[in-house]
């Protein structure tokens, strides 16, 4: 088979698996698990094969036009370059891991068939986005992902949190998708094609008339999909979905789609310095803000969600300094270790029976009870904190190195100011990232207190998957040389200055957090436990939102401020705001939800009082007329006959007159 | 009658051209008689529909129908005229009188013989009359019936036409009459279970429905 | 003889019959009016039959035959009509046509219909109004 055929099969196989799974889910439950696991597995193998054949060489392009679509043709096109094939391997591999993990994690879920089918469909859509060489086809995958995400986040639709979270995820991403679509059309209008290759050619020849406008419009969609400020607000709430879904969608694939899209069309964005600066600011705000918020969260999955937002900020930061190799490199390593983090967190939640870090901190022996989760999560957190030699270190250093090059003016592609912004924010975030990673690790695994009842043994497949994912988290970074060749020869090797700086900052962050933790734990141990301080309103609100589909056994514990939390001491007065995500939800509610609800009420009012008045009148007027006509319906045959004869007479006279006039 | 016939004979000899010269101001004898009888007929008819005494209405109807019979005679349709006398004057009016009696119509003037519809009815009737008269006069102002030829309505002529050209409708009509007869009987027949309160007085009236309903039904 | 004479007489009789038909209250008087109208038509038929026979030498005598038929029909009609009138009288105690108003729509019917319509409208409104009171909005309002 040719490489093109193989590449076509990669997205098609999960799609067929999804359709078959949906069709057979009720009829033949025995087929559901093979149908869920085998297509992504085959897709992984094929994607690896495609990657091996492409091998970082010149891009393979193939296109076929299904039907003429007017002035700007839409074609089923493949564009396989080094980025595409590698990202496809990541996507397919993570999807396979998630499907395998789900067979254990959701083994008793009654809706597992539809869940597995949706995950497969989602994988297929993401692979389509990755391979597609045509922006409209890409958009199809983009939107299919959006709707699958909606369904998967709302998997536990019995709970109001999951329902509202799925709606929120859908609406917020759509809010970005509308300008995105307009941007795509503007791009096609400027370049005359939806094909990525032609667009890039046109951009290379300076054929873009409105680069800033197009770039900003596209950025809106990217911000929505990749959870960048200010459209990131859906991602923490989306943790209401099952943990494997969080791992797949909200760590490794869907949020990566935005970054990947920018990486593909980087010349378009690079054509506008303003767009790059906006991107840099967006990335900086996202990184720093999300790291601070992550430090204050109590729900382990929300910590991870904010960390995802921050790491995506690193990727967009790399794009802001026009280095897509670094961005995709970080995408790869992050996809691996964040999937691992989420899956391990799932195992941990299963063992602890709660999402709450506070509750975990008061539970002893989690380290031994969930030993596999402990060790793999340690690896992943070290990668997240970017300590050498874990994978996160290399990719983050690639980003920071690129930023430094841009800041010091070694590259022409990006403005120096973008470089400085990214560099500063990136270094600050490195510190914060290490801090919240340490806090998470300490709080989750080094708790002290009574042991909890055992919820049942971990399925073997979960632990196997954790260790499988631990390998790339540990070692993928070392592949920077190979990947650099694949990504077009740019060096991804860490530079000395930034490496020392960032690693140093990370160590500082980790150690400070550890020290604080020792202090606060000692403090908390000295004080009696029990119903504690009166709590501010926002805290309770936040904690209530944090409670997801896994109803924790001790929701009351999570609602209390815990003095043993090092994040509280570290952040000080900022903690309250950080815990609430810097009130962006409230802002969004004020800005969008309230006006929308008000408009809805207005519409309802208008409908009820104005439109329905017409409807009522439409009923009342005929009724009055009917009553008037009914007066003539006396039941008296003589009256009827009179009217009949009078009418006949009139007709006769008319006929005679007409005849007379005609004659 | 002889004078009328001679007058008619005198006019019969005239040609078709002469017909057009005949005016309404020089009526023939037949026409004068026709007019007079017609006036009587119309007057009787008006009384029929306006009198407040129900029985008088029936009697005025007799006059009107008799007048029409005379008009038939003047039009030389003697068979029709006798049939008119026999059936209408002889049976229909008698039937109507029976009906009046059976429905216990009041003898003497009754105050409410006309419904509230009367003004409208008058308007419609006047309009009908105006329209019809206008149309008829406009159309047949100059048309002349030559009554001096062979009699067109004698029993012989009518019978020949009826039993040569119109046999089938005639037979069908007899079936219709039979059906009407049966229908009338069925309609007016009183069934036993319909009126449980009336066996004492209504028992003999099993066939003809000749007795009116009991007082209780009022 | 001018054809206009019988024709006009016939028209007048017919109009008088119409008046009686529309103005009289007693059903038997209405039947008499009907007889008048029928006779008007008969007179017309005979007059035109004679006219056609004399001027066009028509030997079919359709007018006279039809007159005979009409007379027979009128006899049948009066029989059936009287039977109906008697039946009505027996059932209702009256043979006044303007009191036979069972087909009229009364106020009671009207009220019942209006109540049914309003109930249906209210049910519609209740159904339409429900989505506005979703739990999400309630929660929102509670905040």
UniProtKB/TrEMBL annotation, chain A:
One of its GO terms (cellular component) is endomembrane system. Pfam families: Proton_antipo_M, Proton_antipo_N. The keyword Transmembrane applies. Residues 132-405 form the NADH:quinone oxidoreductase/Mrp antiporter transmembrane domain. The chain crosses the membrane at residues 76-100, 112-130, 136-157, 169-189, 213-235, 247-263, 269-296, 303-322, 328-352, 373-394, 414-439, 460-483, 495-517, 640-661. One of its GO terms (biological process) is electron transport coupled proton transport. The keyword Transmembrane applies. Its main location: membrane. It is found in: Endomembrane system; Membrane. This is NADH-quinone oxidoreductase subunit L. It comes from Streptomyces albidoflavus.
UniProtKB/TrEMBL annotation, chain B:
It is an enzyme of class 7 (translocase). Residues 191-218 are annotated as: Disordered. Keywords: Cell membrane, Membrane, NAD, Quinone, Transmembrane, Transmembrane helix. Residues 197-218 have a biased composition (Low complexity). It is found in: Cell membrane. NDH-1 shuttles electrons from NADH, via FMN and iron-sulfur (Fe-S) centers, to quinones in the respiratory chain. Couples the redox reaction to proton translocation (for every two electrons transferred, four hydrogen ions are translocated across the cytoplasmic membrane), and thus conserves the redox energy in a proton gradient. This is NADH-quinone oxidoreductase subunit J. It comes from Streptomyces wadayamensis.
From TrEMBL, chain C:
InterPro entries: NADH_UbQ_OxRdtase_chain4L/K (IPR001133), NUOK/Mnh_C1-like (IPR039428). It holds the Pfam family Oxidored_q2. Its main location: membrane. Coiled coil: none annotated. It catalyses: a quinone + NADH + 5 H(+)(in) = a quinol + NAD(+) + 4 H(+)(out). Keywords: Cell membrane, Membrane, NAD, Quinone, Translocase, Transmembrane, Transmembrane helix, Transport. Its EC number is 7.1.1.-. It is a multi-pass membrane protein. It is found in: Cell membrane; Membrane. The keyword Transmembrane helix applies. It is an enzyme of class 7 (translocase). The chain crosses the membrane at residues 6-22, 29-48, 68-89. NDH-1 shuttles electrons from NADH, via FMN and iron-sulfur (Fe-S) centers, to quinones in the respiratory chain. The immediate electron acceptor for the enzyme in this species is believed to be a menaquinone. Couples the redox reaction to proton translocation (for every two electrons transferred, four hydrogen ions are translocated across the cytoplasmic membrane), and thus conserves the redox energy in a proton gradient. PANTHER family: NADH-UBIQUINONE OXIDOREDUCTASE CHAIN 4L, NADH-UBIQUINONE OXIDOREDUCTASE SUBUNIT ND4L. Belongs to the complex I subunit 4L family. NDH-1 is composed of 14 different subunits. Subunits NuoA, H, J, K, L, M, N constitute the membrane sector of the complex. This is NADH-quinone oxidoreductase subunit K. The lineage of its organism: Bacteria, Bacillati, Actinomycetota, Actinomycetes, Kitasatosporales.
């Amino acid at each position: 088979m040719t490489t093109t055929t193989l590449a076509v099969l990669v997205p098609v196989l999960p799609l067929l698996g999804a359709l078959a799974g949906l069709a057979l889910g009720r009829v033949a439950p025995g087929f559901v698990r093979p149908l869920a696991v085998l297509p992504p597995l085959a897709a992984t193998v094929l994607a690896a094969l495609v990657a091996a054949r492409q091998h970082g060489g010149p891009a393979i392009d193939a296109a076929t036009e299904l039907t003429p679509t007017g002035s700007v043709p839409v074609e089923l096109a493949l564009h396989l370059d080094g980025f595409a094939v590698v990202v496809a391997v990541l996507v397919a591999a993570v999807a396979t891991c998630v499907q395998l993990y789900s067979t254990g994690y959701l083994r008793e879920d009654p809706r597992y068939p539809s869940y597995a089918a949706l995950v497969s469909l989602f994988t297929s859509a993401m692979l389509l986005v990755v391979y597609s060489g045509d922006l409209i086809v890409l958009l199809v995958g983009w939107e299919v992902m959006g709707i699958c995400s909606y369904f998967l986040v709302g998997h536990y639709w019995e709970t109001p949190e999951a329902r509202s979270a799925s709606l929120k995820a859908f609406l917020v991403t759509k809010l970005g998708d509308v300008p995105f679509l307009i941007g795509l059309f503007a791009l096609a209008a400027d370049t005359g094609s939806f094909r990525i290759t032609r667009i890039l050619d046109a951009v290379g020849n300076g054929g873009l008339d409105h680069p800033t406008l197009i770039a900003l419009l596209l950025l809106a969609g990217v911000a929505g999909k990749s959870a960048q400020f200010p459209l990131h607000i859906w991602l923490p709430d989306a943790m209401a979905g099952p943990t494997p879904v969080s791992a797949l969608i909200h760590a490794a694939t869907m949020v990566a789609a935005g970054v990947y899209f920018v990486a593909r069309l980087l010349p378009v964005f690079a054509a506008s310095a303003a767009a790059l600066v906006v991107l840099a600011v967006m990335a900086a705000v996202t990184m720093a803000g999300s790291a601070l918020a992550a430090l204050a969260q109590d729900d382990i999955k929300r910590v991870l969600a904010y960390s995802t937002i921050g790491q995506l900020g690193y990727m967009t930061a790399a794009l802001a300094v026009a280095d897509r190799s670094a961005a995709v490199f970080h995408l790869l390593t992050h996809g691996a270790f964040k999937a691992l983090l989420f899956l391990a967190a799932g195992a941990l939640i299963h063992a602890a029976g709660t999402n709450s870090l506070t509750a975990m901190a008061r539970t002893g022996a989690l380290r031994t009870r969930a030993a596999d989760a402990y060790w793999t999560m340690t690896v992943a957190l070290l990668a997240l904190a970017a300590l050498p030699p874990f994978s996160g270190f290399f990719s983050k250093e690639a980003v920071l190195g690129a930023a430094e090059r841009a800041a010091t003016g070694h590259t022409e592609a990006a403005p120096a100011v973008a470089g400085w912004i990214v560099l500063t924010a990136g270094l600050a975030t490195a510190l914060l990232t290490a801090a919240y990673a340490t806090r998470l690790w300490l709080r989750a695994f080094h708790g002290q207190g009574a042991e909890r009842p055992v919820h049942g043994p971990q399925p073997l497949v979960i632990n196997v998957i954790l260790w499988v994912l631990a390998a790339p988290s540990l070692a993928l970074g070392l592949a920077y040389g190979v990947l650099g060749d694949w990504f077009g020869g740019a060096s991804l090797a860490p530079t000395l200055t930034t490496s020392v700086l960032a690693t140093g900052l990370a160590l500082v962050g980790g150690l400070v957090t550890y020290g604080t933790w020792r202090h606060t734990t000692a403090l908390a141990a000295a004080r009696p436990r029990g119903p504690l301080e009166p709590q501010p309103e926002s805290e309770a609100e936040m904690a209530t939102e944090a409670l997801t589909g896994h109803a924790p056994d001790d929701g009351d514990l999570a609602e209390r401020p815990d003095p043993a939390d090092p994040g509280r001491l570290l952040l000080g007065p900022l903690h309250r705001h950080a815990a609430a995500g810097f009130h962006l939800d409230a802002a969004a509610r004020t800005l969008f939800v309230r006006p929308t609800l008000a408009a809805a009420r207005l519409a309802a009012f208008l409908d009820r009082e104005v439109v329905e008045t017409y409807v009522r009148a439409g009923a009342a007027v005929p009724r009055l007329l009917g009553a008037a006509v009914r007066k003539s319906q006396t039941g008296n045959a003589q009256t009827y006959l009179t009217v009949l004869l009078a009418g006949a007479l009139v007709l006769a006279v008319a006929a005679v007159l007409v005849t007379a006039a005609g004659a | 009658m002889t004078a009328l016939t001679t007058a008619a004979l005198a006019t019969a000899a005239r040609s078709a051209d002469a017909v057009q010269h005949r005016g309404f101001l020089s009526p023939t004898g037949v026409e004068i008689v026709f007019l007079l009888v017609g006036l009587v007929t119309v007057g009787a008819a008006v009384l029929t529909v306006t009198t407040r005494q129900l029985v008088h209405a029936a009697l005025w109807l007799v006059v009107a129908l008799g007048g029409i019979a005379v008009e038939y005679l003047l039009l030389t349709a003697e068979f029709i005229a006798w049939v008119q006398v026999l059936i209408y004057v002889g049976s229909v009016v008698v039937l109507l009188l029976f009906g009046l009696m059976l429905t216990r119509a009041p003898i003497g003037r009754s105050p409410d013989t006309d419904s509230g519809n009367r003004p409208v009815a008058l308007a419609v009737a006047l309009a009908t009359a105006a329209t019809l008269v206008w149309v008829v006069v406009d159309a047949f102002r100059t048309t002349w019936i030559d009554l001096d030829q062979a009699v067109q309505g004698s029993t012989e002529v009518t019978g020949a036409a009826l039993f040569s050209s119109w046999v089938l409708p005639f037979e069908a009509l007899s079936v219709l009459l039979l059906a009407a007869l049966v229908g009338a009987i069925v309609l007016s027949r009183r069934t036993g279970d319909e009126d449980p309160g009336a066996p004492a007085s209504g028992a003999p009236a099993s066939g003809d429905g000749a007795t009116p309903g009991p007082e209780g039904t009022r | 003889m001018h054809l206009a004479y019988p024709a006009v007489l016939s028209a007048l009789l017919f109009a008088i019959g119409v008046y009686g038909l529309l103005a009289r209250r007693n059903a038997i008087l209405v039947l008499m009016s009907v007889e008048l109208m029928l006779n008007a038509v008969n007179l017309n038929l005979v007059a035109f039959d004679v006219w056609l026979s004399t001027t066009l030498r028509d030997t079919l005598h359709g007018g006279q035959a039809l007159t005979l038929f009409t007379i027979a029909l009128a006899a049948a009609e009066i029989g059936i009509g009287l039977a109906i009138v008697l039946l009505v009288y027996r059932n209702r105690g009256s043979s006044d046509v303007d009191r036979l108003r069972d087909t009229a729509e009364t106020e009671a019917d009207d009220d019942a219909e209006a109540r049914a319509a309003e109930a249906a409208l209210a049910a519609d409104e209740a159904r339409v109004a429900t989505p506005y009171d979703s739990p999400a909005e309630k929660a929102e309002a509670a905040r």
